[in-house]
Amino acid sequence: MKTKAAVLYEANTPLVIEELDLDDPKEGEVLVKIGAAGICRSDWHFMAGEAKTALPAVLGHEGSGVVAEVGRGVTSVKPGDPVILSFVSRCGRCHFCTTGKPNLCDLHMATSTTMLDGTHRLHKGSTNYTPLSKLACFSQYSVTPETACVPCPTDLPMDKAAVIGCCVTTGVGAVVNAAEVKPGTTVAVVGCGGVGLNVLQGARLAGATRIIAVDINEGALEFAMQFGATHSVNPSQQDAEARVREITGGLGADYTFEVFGSGKTVEMAYNMARKGGTVTIVGIPPDGDDPSIDAVALVRQEKTLKGTYYGSAQLQVDMPRMVELYQTGRLNLDDLITRSYRLEDINEAYQDLNRGEVGRGVIMEF
Ligand code: APR
Ligand code: ZN
């Protein structure tokens, strides 16, 4: 069949909207009609050449849709089922899948530019197109692995389902699964965009009492107050590390999170943590932009420095929990989504992201 998609041919050039050929789903695969796709910074990293993949590629890893057709052997979904798309597919057999860390599936990572079997479904002429994260949801239709499909309730709007597919699960999961924030503690969040806002509301959910939003964009700081922030700090206007110490009684925060993706902001999050505190890195810095961390201070101050990928989540279990939290009013996804776009306007949507428009933008028309 044909599908209209946004294609990245070369870093630092606009995405091109065009019609591609999409193969039928193979065994263990599903054809999904995309319902919504989020404008996440992780895709921008590829557009800006800060992260690499094989080009041309169809990006889009924060999505939802409705199952249109299933390949042989698919049992967990059927045509007509609404699904949240997971940007990691499980093989179910590798060390990580079998030890409770399916977000780190070896086969998924080893086949990062193709489907799980090493082949492509998107083509034009003799050219194969990389399906980013095996989702490629900046497209009308996508063929995804069955294990990328997480069934969701029919009354869950597609835009809410899409954001649960990345920024909600990544942000809330970083707090509850990776850092394991305890009630009554202090939290600082560096970078309060789509993902950071969910770290903030995850911290509120976990019972943190002082929740400090750190961002260079005043609009983002103001917006953050709706998502649980109790204090805001702008590093372009004040010594942010000193201010966080001041707010936390001279100690530094119990938990800090980096949610932008740069060496400098990782250092900032590290320095904002108290002795014995936990520093969790969520953002993905450009290749080569590494933080400088003092190893002696790490030892003497007993800090814990950890990374978290996809909210360290059990996706098939944690995503339905995010749906429950939204539907029972504990997670605010209504205000999180601030803009909707047509697929044709995707380059403008990324300009808005980089201009610092607050909240999350979502493509709703394909
Ligand atoms: N200090 C503090 N905040 C900063 C800084 C800085 N030096 N530079 C940028 N920011 C803020 C921006 O103003 C913005 O509010 O970081 C925020 C980033 O938000 P988005 O652009 O919406 O990015 P998001 O989609 O949330 O992704 C953040 O998480 O999953 C990863 O790959 C993703 O690395 C990216 C990160
Ligand atoms: Zn994302």
Strand content: 25-35%
* Uncertain parts: none
Order of helices and strands: EEEHEEEHHEEEEEHEHEHEHEHEHEHEHE
Amount of helix: 25-40%
Structural class: alpha/beta
Q: How many E strands?
A: 19
| Cα shape | globular
Distance between the termini: 15 Å
What is the architecture of the largest domain at the second tier of CATH? Answer: Alpha-Beta Complex
Q: What's the mean pLDDT score?
A: 97
**What ligands can be seen in this structure?**
adenosine-5-diphosphoribose, zinc ion
Question: What kind of assembly state do the chains in view correspond to?
Answer: single chain
CATH superfamily of the largest domain: Medium-chain alcohol dehydrogenases, catalytic domain
Taking the sheet with the most strands, its summary is: 7 strands, mixed
Q: What's the domain count?
A: 2
Radius of gyration: 20 Å
Question: What's the CATH class of the largest domain, please?
Answer: Alpha Beta
Please name the CATH topology of the largest domain: Quinone Oxidoreductase, Chain A, domain 1
The helix count comes to 11
Short recap of the structure:
The protein is of the alpha/beta class and 366 residues long. Helix content is 28%, strand content 27%.
